[in-house]
């Protein structure tokens, strides 16, 4: 399970990206290696022998194509601000031990990015990389290069404001009286590239975020590629994963191209209890091309995959327990069994997508809370579930909970209740029949 540094390098070289002919001078820097360790770091040298203590402390030093290696620990950013914004293309790798010789990002050497809910702290995305505003000396925007985030756990739980501090329901407004911030209305990993920039997010966990957009959100521009693979998104609002486009032209040869493979997305909530938006495991913008394979998309409060008009191929994806639909194409809503017959933007070679009831090994404490939440128009929701979830006991069974004669009643409102890393990770450790994420290898 513990992987040598060279293993990660081999995995990424297999993409065959490299600096392209479309990379402008501002982004053609060779880059250096930075090392960060919460437990052993000090100062801003950022070497393997003298690592920095937090990514936020050395952001102002970063140059295009720098490689950042982050050891195990809990990271709050500079001044515990709870957000890191980077404006040049970089590669970030987490999950190292303190000697930077082995990686095990979901088990022995977790690199956890979080924050606090102190009043006036940042509500920006926890990891926010954007290169679309960088310009060359002649005034033209810089293009090209690569951005990678690999092996980071993002947990917004400590950044959220919860009703009565019970960790059962988030609040989106600040409370100056109690010196509490609003729950950040932003994703965990948000990346906005520039033209001909390739972006990858892999082997990451994002949880407890409350965005309108994606918990993982990639915006790829003209001529760029996006890879989203082997990530685990659990208990977020908005979209679990969002593939976005920054290209508005008609040249199909430079349309942004996405590969979205082997991800697990579970329990994606609407924006708020009465909202009609959000609540989809995966959302795809129009004006891009996407291959979507071997993902597990389950328990979206609206649906599994929301396609806003992109040309996509779907193979061997698992849909389970989604409340309104498995697949939505603009305004057409479909069950998984009807996708091949009814979808307009789907490549005819798509195949192997299925609906299954699955066991989800999250902790019993959180499962009890989720199974006992009060839903608006619960009967309508249950009736619309594609893979029938015919009541409270059916829902309890997917968690392996004991069945009850009546639904669980909770005293407090429940909306995006806090799930801990230890409670959540077992549900992302192994795929179901090859569909979903796996322990990073």
UniProtKB/TrEMBL annotation:
Gene3D superfamilies in alphabetical order: Single-stranded right-handed beta-helix, Pectin lyase-like (2.160.20.10)
Domain of life, source organism: Bacteria
InterPro entries assigned to the protein according to its UniProt record, in alphabetical order: Pectin_lyas_fold, Pectin_lyase_fold/virulence
Protein name in the entry: Right handed beta helix domain-containing protein
């Amino acid at each position: 399970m513990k992987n040598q540094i060279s293993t990660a390098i081999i995995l990424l070289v297999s993409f065959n990206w490299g600096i392209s002919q479309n990379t402008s001078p501002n982004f053609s820097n060779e880059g250096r290696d930075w090392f960060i360790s919460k437990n052993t770091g000090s100062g801003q040298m950022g070497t393997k022998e003298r690592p920095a203590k937090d990514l936020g402390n050395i952001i102002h030093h970063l140059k295009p194509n720098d490689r950042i290696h982050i050891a195990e620990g809990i990271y709050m950013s500079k001044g515990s601000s709870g957000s890191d914004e980077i404006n040049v293309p970089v590669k970030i790798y987490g999950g190292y031990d303190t000697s930077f010789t082995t990686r095990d990002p979901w088990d022995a050497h977790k690199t956890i990015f979080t924050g606090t809910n102190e009043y006036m702290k940042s509500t920006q995305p926890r990891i926010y990389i954007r290169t679309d505003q960088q310009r060359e000396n002649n005034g033209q925007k810089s293009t090209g290069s690569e951005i990678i985030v690999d092996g980071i756990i993002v947990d917004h739980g400590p950044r959220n404001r919860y009703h009565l501090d019970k960790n059962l329901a988030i609040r989106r407004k600040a409370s100056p009286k109690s010196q509490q911030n609003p729950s950040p209305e932003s994703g965990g990993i948000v990346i906005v590239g520039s033209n001909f920039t390739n972006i990858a997010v892999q082997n990451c966990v994002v949880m407890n975020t409350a965005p309108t957009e994606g918990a993982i959100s990639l915006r790829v521009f003209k001529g760029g590629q996006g890879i989203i693979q082997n990530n685990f998104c659990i208990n977020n609002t908005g979209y679990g994963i969002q593939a976005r486009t920054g290209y508005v032209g008609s040249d199909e040869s430079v349309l942004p191209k996405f590969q979205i493979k082997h991800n697990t997305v579970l329990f994606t909530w609407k924006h708020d209890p009465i909202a009609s938006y959000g609540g989809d495991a995966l959302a795809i913008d129009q004006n891009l091309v996407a291959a979507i394979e071997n993902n597990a998309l389950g328990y979206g409060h609206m649906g599994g995959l929301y396609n806003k008009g992109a040309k996509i191929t779907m193979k061997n994806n698992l849909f389970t327990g989604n409340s309104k639909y498995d697949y939505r194409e603009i305004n057409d809503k479909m069950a998984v069994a009807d996708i091949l017959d009814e979808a307009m933007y789907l490549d005819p070679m798509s195949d192997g997508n299925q609906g299954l009831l699955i066991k989800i090994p999250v902790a019993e404490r959180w499962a009890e809370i989720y199974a006992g939440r009060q839903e608006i128009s619960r009967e309508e929701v249950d009736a619309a579930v594609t893979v029938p979830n015919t009541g409270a006991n059916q829902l309890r069974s997917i968690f392996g909970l004991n069945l009850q004669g009546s639904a669980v009643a909770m005293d407090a409102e429940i909306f995006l209740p806090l799930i801990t890393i230890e409670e959540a990770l077992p549900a992302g450790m192994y795929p179901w029949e090859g569909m979903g994420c796996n322990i990073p290898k």
